[in-house]
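Colleagues,

Please find the record for the two-part complex below.
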Amino acid sequence: MNEEQLIEGCRKGERLAQKELYEKYSRKMMGVCLRYASDRETARDLLQDGFVKIFSALDSYAASGSFEGWMRKIFVNCALEHLRKTDILKDAVDLDKTAELMQPDASIISEMSAADLMGLVQELPPGFRAVFNLFAIEGFSHKEIGEMLEITESTSRSQYTRARQLLQRKVKELD
Amino acid sequence: MNDKHRDQFEELFSSKLQNFEADPAPDDWDAIVGRLPNRKIVPLWQNWRYMSAAAAVILVVATATFYLFTEETMRTPLAQQAQQEADVYEKQLKEEQAQIVSIPTPIAKIESASNQPNAQQKHAKSLTRNNPGNLSSTLQVNDSVQIIANVTVNQDAKSDESAIEKEQEERVLSTDKAPEPVAEKTVRKRELFANAGQPAKNKSEQSSKKWSLGLGSGSFTAGTGNTVNTYAFRNSLQADKSLMFMNSAIINSELPKTDIHHDTPISFSLAVSRQLNDRFALQTGLSLTLLSSDWKTNGTFHSKTEQKLYFLGLPLSVVYKIAEWNRFQFYTSAGVMAEINVNGKVKNTLFTDGIDLETESEKVRMKEWLWSVNYKAGVSYPVFHFVNIFAEGGVAYFFDNGSSIETIRSEKPFNAGFNVGLRLGF
């Protein structure tokens, strides 16, 4: 079954098509969920929420763009919705101002595995983690992030700066 | 997306985490399924797609069945008109013959008269030697001429078996008495029409062409045939009367009858379509259709008229994709087609006993446009890239365009058909 047939089958509620779509994309989407979640259990919740939403909202998919891109947006929105519900986006974290001066060697990061980097990101406070993911990984601007998280652009910028400081510190500690 | 401020730190994280994958837990799928609504089962009769497909199939089958079982009893307006004319003429002829019969004429006298060869018989005598093989087949012609008076009497007696037997005996006698002049006269007829073509086939020898495969995007469409109890050429009442007169002198001639047969239309078409959206497409193209018909009369003197008309058609239809399964696409379509007769020919041949006496042909053209509407349902399969092979069944209705030229379209304006072919771009 090609992707178009798969989508059509899912639209009709065919369980086999839904299972095939899940098997095709669940690993990638689990990766997205893990980046936004602090632990694996939360990531699993996000994964399940995301797929239920995907199967329910397939009629809104216009078939003009990338299907995988559309799915990623759904999962990111699920993650952000979860963060908003738990009201943890505005959590403040006191940072040691000296951290701003720490500049880890890029070669250390490049030698680290993706799983190790994922572990570092997951250790970030939820709000910082969300902004870091949206800016550094997804590529959104701070203005867009502000709109998405219902915070100001400057708050997004400062949260990202702090998230980056934390990561730099953690990388430095590993060195 | 804002990449202006992305530095090496961000690039490194992005490249490693952007496509990060992780295995979900084994029971995640079950948890998802548990939260999904059960698939709504729509009863078949509530699903309008299946209903429309079923309606199309029923329509096609019902129409085809109706026409297959009723075609023998159908009559055309032209045939009915011709029969009325022939009835009037036949009545007049009987009255004239009755007047002749009222004058007592001894058979023996007629026979003796027939034994006196006239100038034509003398001329034919020489030809008979060259064509002895035609003797037996032509005896009956002369026989009939000789005992015309008796035939009339017997017919007036209306199925008097003894009279018929007597008549048969007389025929034998007269044949025995005058074999030579009869043969000569008949052979002369052959000589007069020296450009004889192929003898007309008997009805039993004609192939039954109910269905046939067209070319390319050809079609199966039920043909049709009629029998009219009179002589009915395609469009010449004068010719009908002449034929009636010639055969009226033949003893034991059958009742006048014309077999009208419209062949299955053969069409070739090229179609292109443009996708309007996921479900709908607009389809057009060009089609060339041949409509063949023939009219055959019975009797010793009989005729055959063949008509061939070529139509160029411009179809336009809207196609709706019902479903898709393993690259097969099931669809239905509704459309309209305008056809114009671009070329046509009528050939008329007069026969007697397998010999054609006279042949004439003329070009004809239906000036009026032929409009029709159609509804089809079918399946297509992509052969390669944008070329699809398709098979579709459907019904079409051809509007009366007021033309005096009779075709299968005027006789069967509503018909069912089945097409196969190639299509570009569906």
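The mean pLDDT of chain B is 66.

Comments are welcome before we finalize the supplementary table.
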